[in-house]
Amino acid sequence: xxxxxxxxxxxxxxxxxxxxxxxxxxxxxxxxxxxxxxxxxxxxxxxxxxxxxxxxxxxxxxxxxxxxxxxxxxxxxxxxxxxxxxxxxxxxxxxxxxxxxxxxxxxxxxxxxxxxxxxxxxxxxxxxxxxxxxxxxxxxxxxxxxxxxxxxxxxxxxxxxxxxxxxxxxxxx
Length: 173
Known about the structure:
Elements: E1 12-14, E2 17-20, H1 29-45, H2 48-52, E3 55-63, E4 66-69, H3 71-84, E5 86-98, E6 101-111, E7 117-128, E8 134-146
Parallel strand pairs: 3-8
Antiparallel strand pairs: 1-2, 3-4, 5-6, 6-7, 7-8
């Protein structure tokens, strides 16, 4: 996959209110892959307020068994997540796309407060509005404990995955 930008671009806005975030649906292979990489880069920065700007004001989420909607709830969720999931590093990969929808596979590694390392595996289904903002996100995630010696994701964090680090499916389970 091509090199990643240093940071996810901000939403195009007027008067501080995000209006759009290109690329826009309907997606093709290139624009869908770009959207996935932009999301990966933003999540790896671990800035909840910035990440939330990629979602509609009333975005609907299912994350594991948690259901919520709205940017404020997204910020609260991501704040809790990254306080708990320390040293978080994420790789996302495009699985499929059609129209305004994208399916994503992902893996991430993190450690808990006790120092136990984890690798989380999952799938996401995304649906976008016409302005390129995500209006629905559904995530199914499984965690497995790993030894620190079994970690695979090494780059300076927080920050985007460098271009030389393989994405999915190149990264083994």
